[in-house]
Write a structure and sequence with these properties.
Radius of gyration: 16 Å
Shape: elongated
Number of helices: 3
Largest sheet: 5 strands, antiparallel
Structural class: alpha+beta
Order of helices and strands: EHHEEEEH
Number of domains: 1
Number of strands: 5
Length: 146
């Protein structure tokens, strides 16, 4: 996997993910956004980097476009945006595997923190390069038909 390519994680909607309205609860989408980000970090970061650095969320923006239901097979796609200071944006789409319709889109801001002190820390040039896109690069979502 190249550093700035989208990372994908397969998800199958479980009965416990469903709310009283019969579709996936909003809190579950937040969990999936976090799960795919952590999986991406775990894939690209070394063991030493993972031991010294953690990430905390400072902001979520989520657009819910379509519902998901028990048994649906989804793909969570994530990619990094351009970091500014200690704010590292990450984009996520939750897509139905069949038909590739986007169900939700999110932009999440992450801040690197020291694993021991839990205080914000500069992650270093190597991590910054791996988890930040190039300045000025467009950050488009997938196109789909509504």
């Amino acid at each position: 996997m190249k550093e700035h390519e989208a990372f994908e994680l397969a998800i199958t909607v479980q009965p416990a993910d469903i709310d009283g309205l019969g579709h996936v609860n909003n809190v579950v989408y937040v969990r999936w956004i976090q799960d795919v980000a952590i999986a991406h970090w775990s894939t690209l970061a070394t063991a030493a980097e993972q031991q010294r650095l953690l990430w905390v969320i400072t902001r979520h923006e989520i657009d819910y476009l379509r519902p998901a239901f028990a048994g649906d097979d989804l793909i969570a796609r994530t990619w990094v945006g351009e970091a500014q200071g200690m704010s590292f944006p990450r984009h996520t789409e939750l897509v139905r595997r069949t038909g590739r319709k986007v169900l939700a889109r999110a932009k999440t801001l992450w801040c690197p923190v020291d694993a021991k002190t839990l205080r914000p820390m500069e992650p270093g040039a190597e991590i910054r390069a791996r988890f930040s896109s190039e300045p000025g690069k467009q950050e488009f979502f997938s196109q789909d038909v509504f």
